[in-house]
Amino acid sequence: MSEMSHQCVPIRTTAVMRLDSMRQIGRRGIEFIRARACVFMVCVGVVPISVVLISMVPGSIVRGEEIQPATDRPQPKSPEESARCVQLMPGFRWDLVASEPLVRDPTAITFDERGRLFVCELHGYNLDGYLDIVELNKTGKLDREVRRIRFAAPAAQAEADKETFGTVRLLQDIDGDGRMDRADVWADRLPPCYGIVPARGGMIAVCAPDIIYLADRDGDGIAEIRQTLFTGFVREVLERGISNPRWGPDNWIYVASGGLSGNITGPRLKQPVKLGRVNFRIRSDGTAIEPVTGTESMFGLAMTDIGDRIHTICSFVAPLPHHYLTRNPHIESPRGDVDILPPGPLFPISQPDPWRKARG
């Protein structure tokens, strides 16, 4: 997911869909992201959220001259066209609920206790890579190396950081037809936001390096309360941060670690809590945080009604309490995750973009 071509520019069309047969899926959150493919779908909760087309390739390259945008790149599809391209299992369907410009770069959705739909967004993803590409294309040299985004030029990274932030929007269906008509910015300029969950009459936003409580007490549609519950979460790269908070049946909120966590502090914690490469759970009032079994190294966490946890890297968390696995520091504990898909290659259903052929 974190790899990309230096000859591609993202062209985006975003859609939020409603998926029926929710009981069959439960509250799974699945994210399928392919930075090496020409199309990738982002699904959060049970809602496919974003279709992104990546393209920009030189149609003809003259060394020493600036590389121009290609004329044969695939064009972005409308949300309706994007929906028709997706293949669902028998018995499922989806309906368009919201699309651009109501939402942009969404990462998760949730409903509060009043049934209102909230969407959180992460702005700035791939921006450092894009700015790096713009400068690289000026050299006229076709770069055939695939790099991780974290290795973009320092100047590109610094410029991208200025426009990398999180937003929470409140969506409304004014006419009752099941499709959202209005989106208000409920909270803005958060750290990059990877998930929200309703709590205590507001929202808890998971946005490394922080977990923040947001609330609108005066009813003006803007969250004037912004309290940091926990801080200190490490974020290695933008797409790998703490994500997808879920209420558990034990009244704790479970969070996917994203591979790294850190030394966590908070205004209501009695002492710092050191988290390793494991998931964790928190109390909604910020009074407790503790590690739990399982590691989600990228993005995504789902939970069944009885508390079984499933990672979106397609693994099941073994029901082994974390404190049992770690009580003897001199013995290596068994892995806390079990793969639920048989090993084997994956093949895209789409044809390679022209830029892939040019770079190959």
Fold blueprint:
Blueprint: E1 3-4, E2 9-19, H1 22-25, E3 39-44, E4 47-55, H2 79-85, E5 94-99, E6 106-111, E7 117-123, H3 127-137, E8 147-148, H4 154-161, E9 165-172, E10 182-190, E11 196-199, E12 202-207, E13 210-215, E14 225-231, E15 243-247, E16 253-256, E17 262-264, E18 273-275, E19 280-282, E20 289-291, E21 301-303, E22 309-311, E23 315-317, H5 322-325, E24 337-339, H6 354-359
Antiparallel strand pairs: 1-8, 2-4, 2-5, 3-4, 6-7, 7-9, 9-10, 11-12, 12-13, 13-14, 15-16, 16-19, 17-18, 19-20, 21-22, 22-23, 23-24
Helix pairs in contact: 3-4
Describe the structure.
With 360 residues, the protein is mostly beta strands. It has a single domain, classed as Neuraminidase. The chain has six helices and 24 strands. The chain has helices spanning 22-25, 79-85, 127-137, 154-161, 322-325, 354-359; strands at 3-4, 9-19, 39-44, 47-55, 94-99, 106-111, 117-123, 147-148, 165-172, 182-190, 196-199, 202-207, 210-215, 225-231, 243-247, 253-256, 262-264, 273-275, 280-282, 289-291, 301-303, 309-311, 315-317, 337-339. The protein has a four-stranded antiparallel beta sheet, covered by helices on one side. Strands 6-7-9-10 form a four-stranded antiparallel beta sheet, with no helix packed on it. Strands 11-12-13-14 form a four-stranded antiparallel beta sheet, with no helix packed on it. The relative contact order is 0.14.
Pattern of helices and strands: EEHEEHEEEHEHEEEEEEEEEEEEEEEHEH
Strand percentage lies at 25-35%
Compute the gyration radius: what is it?
A: 21 Å
- Class by helix and strand content? mainly beta
CATH fold-type name: Neuraminidase
| CATH class group | Mainly Beta
Count of DSSP helices? 6
| Strand arrangement across the biggest beta sheet | 3-4-2-5
pLDDT averaged over residues: 77
The largest β sheet comes out as: 4 strands, antiparallel
Low-confidence stretches: 1-63
Can you count the beta strands?
24
**Count of the domains:** 1
Choose one word for the global shape: globular
Beginning-to-end CA distance, first to last residue: 19 Å
CATH architecture: 6 Propeller
**Residues in helices, as a percent range:** 10-25%
